[in-house]
Structure formats: C-alpha cells, structure tokens
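> forwarded from #structure-qc
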C-alpha cells in the first residue's frame, strides 16, 4: 500500500518511516512546513528531511514554503498558548495540504509525523486527519513503542540537525523565553 507521509522535520520522519516500512507500506514523504520560521530554519529542516529520504531510500515531495498563507490562517490566534488553537489551525493546514497531495498523486493513504513528538496531541492530530481524509488517514500515535526515543537515536546515527522548538515564530519566541528563564534560574542557583 502506498502511503504519503506528511513530514515536519527529518528527526521525526526517521522513526516514522522506519515503522511504516516495517509495517509493509511503501512510503513517500511530503515535506510541508509553511509555519517554520525563519527561512534558514526551514532550509535546515528541509535538508534534514532530504538526508533521511536519501538514507532510508524513499521519495520526497517538497511542498511550497508559503509563510503568508500560514500567517493568514493563524491570524487572531497569535497569542494562543503552545498546543492551543493556533496549533490546531496549523495542524489542519498541513494535513489538508497532505490530503490534497495524496489525492493528486493517487496514494492509497496518508498520515503525518506530527504524533511522534511528545509535545503534540495525537488525539487532536488524528481527529483532524480523519475529518479531512476520512478512512484515507492512518490513525497513529508514533510516539508510542518508544517512537520518539527511536527518532532521537536515528537522528544521532544520521547526524541530523535537531531543532529545539516546534517551528513557528511564536514557538521560537517561547523557546527563547524558556532558555532565558532556565539561564536565570541556573545563575541564581550558582549564587546560592
């Protein structure tokens, strides 16, 4: 069965592709991340996805980097907390694009790497996937069976770039604030 796998980054793709191939699927990746900010971050993640595709020998379709469409979609949800309404909009946007690619290229099914992250709500992602694609969407929680741990192992083996935030400018800002907060706390702990 031919499956189109929406890919958010190379790290997440590694263990998901491995699992899908072990389950007998013929995988084609679809890298689509209009949310990724800034552009050089997008390039690093795309390069990592390309490296995984070469290493694991699967085809990779590269979606359009359409930041304007993403900003338009999340307008009004900019201040939503990480994991909230903005993320739901973002997941839907990317899954809709994957569904269109699946239909255009006549794949049997589609799914996403999004559920391999322990920070992503697999129930939400799977609900959106089913709303968009019905039974064409493969419901999965790829973080289970140590999927996230395996992704980290494979990314180390392949020497992949590993990001420290989800991708959008808002999650980047939140990651920067968290690093600064930890730095201040560590500085205070050193003085104690």
């Amino acid at each position: 069965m031919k499956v189109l796998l929406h890919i958010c980054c190379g790290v997440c793709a590694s263990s998901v592709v491995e699992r899908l191939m072990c389950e007998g699927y013929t995988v084609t990746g679809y890298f689509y991340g209009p949310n990724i900010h800034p552009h050089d971050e997008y390039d690093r993640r795309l390069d990592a996805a390309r490296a995984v595709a070469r290493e694991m020998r699967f085809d990779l379709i590269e979606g359009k980097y359409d930041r304007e469409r993403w900003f338009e979609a999340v307008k009004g949800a900019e201040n939503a907390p990480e994991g909230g309404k903005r993320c739901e909009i973002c997941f839907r946007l990317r899954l809709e694009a994957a569904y269109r690619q699946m239909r255009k290229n006549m794949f049997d099914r589609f799914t996403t790497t999004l559920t391999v992250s322990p920070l992503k709500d697999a129930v939400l992602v799977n609900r959106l996937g089913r709303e968009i694609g019905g039974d064409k969407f493969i419901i999965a929680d790829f973080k289970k069976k140590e999927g996230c741990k395996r992704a980290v192992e494979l990314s180390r083996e392949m020497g992949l770039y590993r990001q420290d935030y989800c991708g959008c400018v808002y999650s980047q800002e939140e990651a920067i604030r968290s690093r600064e907060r930890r730095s201040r706390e560590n500085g205070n702990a050193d003085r104690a």
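QC bot note: The CA atoms of residues 17 and 183 lie 36 Å apart. The helical segments are 10-22, 39-56, 67-74, 85-104, 122-133, 147-158, 169-191.
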